[in-house]
Amino acid sequence: MTQKIRQASRSAHYNHVITGRAKYQREIIMDFMERHQLPRNRREIALMTGLTINAVTGRVNALIENKELIEEHFCVDPVTNQRVGYVEIPYKVIQARLF
């Protein structure tokens, strides 16, 4: 059973990459973060962009890994009462995108 789930996940991820959906979702998130320039958690990004939380989580994790976003602030989300990380665009990324 676990093997089938892993294969389905890999297939879905591959499909997102091939169709360009992952890139499109990253662009939506980065455009949103540039416009608002405030630290946001993944739930807020999902709510304000209209993307699903699963899509936002995957794209934000990839953006953090690529150093296009940083996650430095952690606190309790007032809606979920869970400890969450807030992401923002590093200053050097903003500078590079402007020039």
Give a short overview.
The chain is of the alpha+beta class and 99 residues long. The protein is built from 5 helices and 2 strands.
How many separate structural domains?
1
Question: What would the average pLDDT be, to the nearest integer?
Answer: 84
Structural class: alpha+beta
**C-alpha-based Rg, rounded:** 15 Å
CATH domain topology = Arc Repressor Mutant, subunit A
| Largest sheet descriptor | 2 strands, antiparallel
**Spans with pLDDT under 50 lasting ≥5 residues?**
none
**Overall geometric form:** globular
- Element-level helix/strand string: HHHHEEH
CATH superfamily: Winged helix-like DNA-binding domain superfamily/Winged helix DNA-binding domain
Q: How is the largest sheet built, in terms of strand order?
A: 1-2
Q: Given this structure, which CATH class is correct?
A: Mainly Alpha
Number of strand elements: 2
Architecture (CATH level 2) name: Orthogonal Bundle
